[in-house]
């Protein structure tokens, strides 16, 4: 049997780490929570037209660290959006996630956390212990009042963790003398295909945006045996492109209709993404895949607010479990920068997320807070 997959209308790709075989309940809880969170965030981001590329697990990781220092209704809201059973399970699960991701073989996969705190301030003992032990976070002190120097220090760390693919994550104007804390997560991936595309077969072809609109792209071609299925529920085809590490793959979902993007998008809301590769078979498949590079910057304030986290951006936020201070903290901004390049040889991707905490309105109306997140990746091309 020979099937043909030509990517002509919609491409949904997610970098999925096969860790489901782990018999660790906290790890499984975090992975399931991240899958649920990915759908919620994707739904919130898809309200805007155009391509969507983000790193869900990094956003999830940063918010999970924030969760550890939250209390009361803020803690409940974060737990619900993150879809995790509790603080202890989340912390233990992330310890396993961090160790597992940083030990993947045959590809380059690095994930790192770092928390910067204002000079002369200190963390609550319990928070510091959990963030260091379970989230494997580095800790550094900065004078955020010297915003140029502080931004440069944070950005240099991010560049080092992402092979210089993510630059200028923090702007000097994001920081000031009211800034108390910046949480940063960075992730970098570089992997080769198990079966590379032949560069000699790459040629300029039409890429359909819908029934009527098309553009020219460099289309790569491959014929080999791959896991594939026709998904009647999604009215789409699903293909798995493996990397040299068999536990890592790119998942491509192609609607059967060129104008089927909106319909597929709605159906994905009700799909458990961790099960999307079930019941696949392995025929010989002809694949046509665009060669592309995308860089994205996403302001996550509004999407996270739509998901139910508006409180963390207001004076209602209870983040009193983070630092030893009577000053109320709140989040002022959440942003992510992401990069991906897909070529005949494989994929290179990176993302970074930072959370900037400032003083709540109870002390100062000119508070600042920014969160930037990064992790494994989800890409929607339209």
UniProtKB/TrEMBL annotation:
SUPFAM superfamilies: Serpins (SSF56574). Residues 1-22 form the signal peptide. GO terms for cellular component: extracellular space. GO terms for molecular function: serine-type endopeptidase inhibitor activity. InterPro entries: Serpin_dom, Serpin_fam, Serpin_sf, Serpin_sf_1, Serpin_sf_2. Residues 39-379 form the Serpin domain. CDD domains: serpin42Da-like. It holds the Pfam family Serpin. The keyword Signal applies. Keywords: Protease inhibitor, Serine protease inhibitor, Signal. Belongs to the serpin family. This is Serpin domain-containing protein. It comes from Callosobruchus maculatus (Southern cowpea weevil). The lineage of its organism: Eukaryota, Metazoa, Ecdysozoa, Arthropoda, Hexapoda.
